[in-house]
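User: Please predict the structure of the protein below. I'd like the answer in C-alpha cell form so I can feed it into my own downstream comparison script.

Assistant: Understood. Taking the following sequence of 135 residues as input:
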Amino acid sequence: MEKIAHYAFLAFVLIAIVAGLAIGAWAYSINTNLPYPENMTGNVANANSYILLIMVILGIIVGLISIAAKEIQPFLIATIALVVASLAQVWTPLGTISNLLPYLASLILSYIVAFVAPAAVLLAIKAVFALERSK
C-alpha cells in the first residue's frame, strides 16, 4: 500500500506539472502580456478552475490515505515551504528571459500547492488529534 501511495503522489505532482504547462501555454497563446495566472479570462480561466478543483480533490485523497504518521511533520514543513514560495512570486526574474517562464512556473507551483494544501490540512488535524490522545 505504501508503494502505491508513493507512486500516486508522484503521479499527482506530474499531473500538476503537465496541467501547468498546458494551461500556461494556452493562456499565453491568447495573451502574451499576462504576468500571472490571476489575469486569466474566458475558457482558460474555466479550465484553470477545474484543474484546481481536481488538484484539491486529489490532495484530499492523499491526505486521507497515503501519508504515514512518521511522514506528517516533514510533509507539513514542505507544504509551508511551497506555500511561501508560491506567495513570494520568486519567478518574476524569469521574465527577463521570456514572458512565458514566470507564468508557467507560477501556474505549476499553484497547482502543486492546491494539491498539497488540503492534504496538509487533513494531516495537521490528524496530528492535533494524535497529540490530544497522547495526553
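That's the full C-alpha cell string. The chain has a mean pLDDT of 83.
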